[in-house]
Amino acid sequence: MSEDDPGEQPTQEHQAPEITFDEKFYPARPKRFRPSARRSLRRRLADRLGGEEMADSREYVEWLVEESMLHDANRLATQLSGTGSMWQNPFAHPDPRAALERASVWFTAYPLSFVTRQGESYLAALADRGLWEAFRRIGIDAVHTGPVKLAGGLNGRRLTPSVDGHFDRISMNVDPEFGTEEEFRTLCATAAEYEGTVIDDIVPGHTGKGADFRLAEMGYQDYPGIYHMVAVAPEDWDLLPDVPEGRDSVNLDAETEAVLERRGYIIGRLQRVIFYEPGIKETNWSATRPVLGVDGVERRWVYLHYFKEGQPSINWLDPSFSGMRLVIGDALHALADLGAGGLRLDANGFLGAEKSAEEEPAWSEGHPLSEAANHFIASMIRKMGGFSFQELNLSMDDIKVMGESGADLSYDFVNRPAYHHALVTEDTEFLRLTLRTAMEMGIDPASLVHAMQNHDELTHELVHFSTVHRDQLFEWHGEETRGEDLAEEVRQTLNARLTGVRAPYNRTFTTNGIACTTATVIAATLGIRDIALITPEERDRIKDVHLLLVMFNALQPGVFALSGWDLSGMLTVDAASVADLIADGDTRWLNRGAHDLRGVPDPSTEGRMPAGRSLYGALPEQLADPKSFASGLRKILEVRGEHGIATAKQIDIPDVSNKAELVMVHELTDGQLQITALNFSAEEIAGSVRSEHLPGGSVLTDMFTGEELGTVDDLHTFSLTLCGYSGRSLLVTPPE
């Protein structure tokens, strides 16, 4: 794989054809053209207790087939094939603004952390009309449910737990721990009553070790084609490590990985090992124990997993196309059967892997197969009347390329660590660099999901700077700095300021980032070392900084997303309360504390995360207090919605007179200009703002208060004062 900047390579830009069909005249994806299908009319219930696996047991194999996702995918496809409703929606090109008009402010939920009443399921709680009333008052118009399908694995007929927060899906069934399929449909219906949308998940990159993987191990029909798995000849089994008692596979060390590559079994080491942990995960390959096949042949397999050992990777270019059929079937189920309006594509940047030159790592990131597969998945979702977004922690080059034909929206992995860096250093230089780089590369911020906290860590890998552009020189602190060195400095600064003795309540998460909440990032920034002793005054300071970060994310084009941890002002949980969960190094459980948005009098605790401390309280009491976080959030979103900032165009990130200041200039859909000005420091700042895009003589109006703040002079400049940790949204009215 060439490490050259793709931007320097000659390319022929694809020109979309002139629209000559109904997309030009009618709204995209009308509801009446949403196809529908049911996964099955009759379904066996899984025997969750006992039953040994036996490849020579016809009944057991039939049971696995009935439980498999590939089997369900085939059932769904037969109901939808040949129907006119499959041809009523445009699908060729991503349409981020159509998605934004449908849902631009998202609540990102997490099933294990959402507090429910006794006897109430997670999905039933999300459908609570009181909750949706609060969402409507605040300005939230979509809910991302998070993963709710059965996940983990199968040992015989016994379910084994999820190894990655339910992102190791093994079935299209909703996990009974979270509710039922009917409750999911009720949630979608309730959301529609409040003009909202429900966003579900699919995982194109891997599954768990469920029925599909067990059938693949047995060599049953085309199931091995679902995965990147290779049967090792018995005479080479001595190359494989022994599988410890009680386990079904073991991770390969680097030496074994290299030997198997030389023998022609696997493509060898990849560009990086995600979740690297010595003695636990040293490579992206694992070997199974001997497994008896349906043909009576015993096999040992070596399989690829980008993530954890229990997440075998899907093969998107196997001749059987079994993996593709499984993933598309999962998407059809969410859209046509359950009623979701959008889908998140998880781990969709890792769908292609190819052997490279000798001694070089395999090509596994930015691979054209990932682009092609994403185009395929996203087109099917649009064809079904939905939209999609991707969590693609790769370079901006990859985000741009995959956004041209793939998902409608992409998660903003670059600017999030940048605005946290601006906060902890009181210097927006790196944030201005990331914003300008995206603009120069032609990445439309309206196509991005600007998020606060979600279920994961604060990712600070900064892949754009540390991989593809590692040798490119960037202007940094007045000097030319290599991208790799710049990324490392930012990471080290974030780690030093947000973890360790300064903030023992936050922890690093392997090499990926920091396990924290937005509130604990702010607490560390403010010098608070013991979050158990936060005073009311400190809570109010945290709230004010939190609203500053809301303004950065919400007062620019694109989706604004926040979680229950943000709405409640949650702190990280005590490490002792999740000691078993973080024992293998997965510190993210610290930032996943249970939170109560509704003020439930009899909360259920069984099977849920331990509760963390909430600084802001439940939504009903917050909305009754005009000085609360939720009330402040509501005012920001009112300005965003009234002026259509979500669908605006970002046209300038001007230089600033104070390093703590950030200014973004946007062109609204009606042609007027809007300015977002923010102060990332505790001190009041005053100075001038200059942008060539500002017409001389224009009047500046505060969008929150309606107050006139002056005019733009003939040098395209105006004066502005910002209090500490505050921001303003300005409307620019040109002279008549």
UniProtKB/TrEMBL annotation:
GO biological process: carbohydrate metabolic process
Region (Disordered): 1-22
Protein name listed in UniProt: Trehalose synthase
Native organism: Solirubrobacter pauli
Lineage, broadest ranks: Bacteria, Bacillati, Actinomycetota, Thermoleophilia, Solirubrobacterales
